[in-house]
Design brief:
By secondary structure, the chain is mostly helical. It is built from six helices and two strands, in the order αααββααα. A hairpin with a 3-residue loop joins strand 1 and strand 2.
Amino acid sequence: MKKLEPELKQLKKDFPNKEEQARKTFELYKKYKTNPFSGCLVLLLQLPVIFALYYVFYNGISINNDLIYSFIQVPQGMHTNFLGLIEMSSKSVALGIIAGITQFVQGYLSSPLKPKDKNIEKPEPQTFQEQLSDSMQMNVKYVLPIFIAFVAWRISAAVALYWIVSNIFTITQEWYIRRSFNKEQI
């Protein structure tokens, strides 16, 4: 999507009519085989996992003896320690803070790169949509990590650990894409 950004801005300038602009935008997406909603699917797939983790570690796991085969012994107790360090069913301030930090790094990396050109004397005024987009980016970068840290601290450590691992994978993916994109530019 970052690769298409200059062309999308040009389309907005060339076609003031919203219907024509939308049609040309979808043609551009087809040309580059890009789906603007592809990022939403990943979030929708993660929600059931987060809810399941929360439910399992909040309520605990109960095993129905009637559903287990007769040759399998029922465990006497369930241990919820992660690597012997963190109790996954309790709250963890450390994991909450780490979740907030990884969310900040992810938000920082996902924000669009803006070239700093000192030769430009007077920038052109931003449209309402661009101002709204900048405001949303600011919230994603600064407010969302604080919210995530608070939520990760208040619920079980299992959800916080899942959030941290997910953020680390996203950070790695963004870093790889940026590196590949920069190699193409050279």
